Amino acid sequence: LSGLDPAQPYFQDTPIEVRLDKSDAEFVDVIHTDSAPTIPYLGFGMSPAIGHLDFYPNGGREMPGCAKNPVSQVVDLDGIWEGTRDFVACNHLRSYKYYSDSIIYPDGFLGYSCASYDVFEAGSCFPCPKEGCPNMGHFADKFKGKTKNDFTKLYLNTGEAKDFPLWRYKVTVTLSGNSKVTGYVNVALYGSDGNTRQHQIIKGTLQPDNTYTSFIDAEVNIGTVTKVKFLWNNNLINPTFPKLGAATITVQSGEDG
Length: 257
Fold this sequence. Notes:
The protein has helices at 38-41, 70-74, 80-104, 117-121, and strands spanning 2-4, 29-31, 53-57, 112-113, 152-156, 167-177, 181-191, 194-195, 199-206, 211-218, 225-233, 244-253. By secondary structure, it is of the alpha/beta class.
């Protein structure tokens, strides 16, 4: 039984006979996409974990792409009716959009078991444990019986628009050069199954011999890494023509470590 952002008003904190609960089926998975408090944030979805697996994409409260300009949202690619619904209840409706995308991407939407979204964003729950991570959506039931906790909260990030799944990588860069520079470093990943766009790893002071770590939520599952593209820019005309390179770049996949 899959709960697509189960309703908060009149249902949250009620007895289990009234609302969705893990006792309702052999396996209950839940996608929370609009769990901010109803007052004052107009959150329609409930926030507590109530299933065997509870997924909180993007933290479960505000979904990327839902803060678009109201006019552009109402005149949506999928039509005025769809756009109007998104304008009124965009976060709430993301749950079924993620679910439908999950059917097309059986390897997508990996949920990382974590204490909170902030802890997930800090990278503490990366990579997946040896038993793997469950997939949010249609294929969540592949994880049936594998959870030991009473409730398992899972976190992940999604894209702003269709196609929604993202694949998480940890990128560690050790810089080389003669002097520190202010600017930013971008990295693009190339793999056996696809390539990513450029993702920013560092912004600010770039110090040679220092090591910097960042997490990339890539728009494609690249498979086996074949190449990494490293670019840096200092945004300024510098008469000393500073040179900066990467001594090493390490890429770790969240899926299998």
